[in-house]
Amino acid sequence: MAAISTESWSVQRRITAQRIAAILYGVISIMTAELSVQGGEFGYAEAALGALLVGFAMTVTRIFIELVKKETETGAHLSIGKSGAIVRDSMLVMLFPAMTALLVVVAALTTAKWSILLNVLLYLSMATVFVVGFLSSYVLDREIRPALLRGVSWLLLSLVLVVAKNLA
To answer: Tens of pLDDT along the chain (168 residues)?
Structure first.
């Protein structure tokens, strides 16, 4: 049964939670793409570009999904002006892929080994999943316990990707 929303769950807090959660698309897209990458398989420039392309694909996907969702909720097509907020909020999906591309560039400049880079990326992804989960709940009502539970549960679910890679 869904919890009853309270006045503390203001419209602005709900919008902020949705924006924070948008970042998760980018994190999971990079974690998923990383499943098939083996160290040294790509050059650093290719890996950085790949991270940006994966992020772009997920940004476009989120835009399409949110547009259709909003149109089905309202029962009407959205004008370009009204879809601008969806496009703007969906750009947050690119945050983690852009950070990943920057990390790859830094790794190239410091001549870090691929195994180190992939491990750093994996741990950064898992930490980001926890933080995004925590913040997407905490921003709504400022309650620590539900936010920690969400962060931990999202982290545990993301570990499924790690297990999948290790089994492959």
So the answer is: 445 555 667 888 888 888 898 999 999 999 888 877 777 778 899 999 999 999 999 999 999 999 999 999 989 898 888 889 899 999 999 999 999 999 999 999 998 888 888 889 989 999 999 999 999 999 988 999 999 999 999 999 989 888 877 786
Global pTM? 0.84
Residue 142 main-chain phi, psi, to 5 deg:
60, 30
> Hey, what long-range contacts does 3-8 have (CB within 8 A, 24 or more apart)?
6/141, 8/140, 8/141, 8/142
Domain boundaries, the chain: 11-31+42-167
Residue 39 CB contacts under 8 Å (≥ 6 apart), including other chains: 113, 114, 115, 117, 118
What is d(CA 28, CA 125) in angstroms, rounded to the nearest whole number?
Answer: 8
